[in-house]
Every structure is written in C-alpha cells, then in structure tokens.
Amino acid sequence: MNLNITGHHLEVTPAIREFVTSKLERVIRHFDHVTATHVILSVEKLKQKAEVTLHVRGKDIHVEATEEDLYAAIDAMTDKLDRQVVKHKEKSFDHGRDAIKHQAAQP
After folding, report:
1. Which positions ≥6 away from 12 have C-beta within 8 Å?
2. Is 105 helix (H, G, I), strand (E, B) or coil?
3. What pTM does this model have?
4. Is residue 72 within a helix (H) or strand (E), and if so which, with residue range?
5. Under DSSP, is residue 97 helix (H, G, I), strand (E, B) or coil?
6. How many other C-beta atoms are found inside a 10 Å radius of the C-beta of residue 40?
7. Which strand (E) or helix (H) includes residue 84?
8. Does residue 107 carry a pLDDT above 60?
9. For residues 10, 16, 17 and 19, what is the CA-based torsion angle, rounded to 10 degrees?
10. Which tens digit of pLDDT belongs to each residue from 58-106?
C-alpha cells in the first residue's frame, strides 16, 4: 500500500504521521485490495479538517471530517472510512443472489 500524507497550512510531525498510520492500519485490516491512500490534513481558521482518498480495486473512496481538534478529526475520518470500506467489501462480495444449495427446495 502506498501512503501519502500532506499538510495544508500545518506541518506533519512524526507524531501525527504515526497516529494517522496506526489508525489507517485498522481500516486496511478489513480489506486487502487497497492500492494507494492519500491523506490531507488542513487548518481552516479554528476548524481542523482531515480527508482521505482510498484507492481500492474498482473504486475510489473519499471521506472527510472536520473537528476542533486535529486528532478528533482523524478519529472521525477513520471511523467514517471504516464504515465505507466494510460497505464496499460487502457489496463487492455479495452479488445479490444465493447459491443453489442455500435456496429452499421447491415442490
């Protein structure tokens, strides 16, 4: 997985980089087909914004969260991303039909 972390109007310190990496590892654990991840951390007046674009096979998942604290914004972003990844995984593996052996026998 290719991870890119960018800061707009703030410096990405090693502590922030480690925090983002540890949070994203939890999300990546659900889904193995992640090719690239781009995280943008920015400051807009008193609001801290964290956004991520996750490139998976067949789709790009984009999530953003805004909070007053940067670490809270990163937490909210990873929670949203986790839900989106699980939803995408369920959609990609569930094709809307049951196998013949799971269908009820008809008389």
Report:
1. 5, 6, 41
2. coil
3. 0.81
4. helix 70-93
5. coil
6. 15
7. helix 70-93
8. no
9. -150
10. 889 999 999 999 999 999 999 999 999 888 888 877 666 666 666 665 5
The C-alpha atoms of residue 41 and residue 49 are separated, in whole angstroms, by 6
Predicted pLDDT of residue 54: 92
48, two tokens: 């801290």
With CA atoms as reference, report the closest residue to 50 among 81, 29, 27, 94. Answer: 81
Q: Find out whether 55 and 23 touch, Cβ atoms under 8 Å.
A: no
Spatial contact of 48 and 60, defined as CB atoms under 8 Å apart: no
The tens digit of pLDDT for each residue in 25-49 reads 888 887 777 889 999 999 988 999 9
User: How far is CA 57 from each of CA 10, 41, 42, 61, 79, rounded to the nearest angstrom?
Assistant: 31, 24, 27, 10, 21
Q: How far is CA 80 from the centre of its chain?
A: 7
Task: Say how many Å lie between the first and final Cα of the chain, rounded.
Answer: 51
What is the arithmetic mean of pLDDT over 12-28? Answer: 92
